[in-house]
Design a protein that fits this description.
single chain; mainly alpha; 2 helices; 0% strand
Length: 69
């Protein structure tokens, strides 16, 4: 998508949740292996996006994919 995070309108609360997804990706190895939580947590991050049409679910998923490759 040619769009960016500036094109996405989210509440502050929702954007904080998106930041948690990005933080998990950034620090997954630290959390899983350095902190030795791999035996307690499953690998990866699961998120459910919900809401009516036009609320930014698809754009958010696309932008996450763009940032995380």
């Amino acid at each position: 998508t040619p769009l960016s995070w500036q094109d996405l309108v989210l509440s502050e609360k929702t954007f904080k949740e998106i930041e948690r997804i990005l933080a998990w990706y950034k620090f997954e190895n630290l959390i899983m292996y350095d902190w030795k939580l791999a035996k307690h947590l499953k690998k990866g991050y699961k998120a459910l996006f919900y809401g009516p049409s036009g609320t930014g679910k698809t754009l958010t998923a696309t932008l996450l994919g763009k940032v995380l490759n």
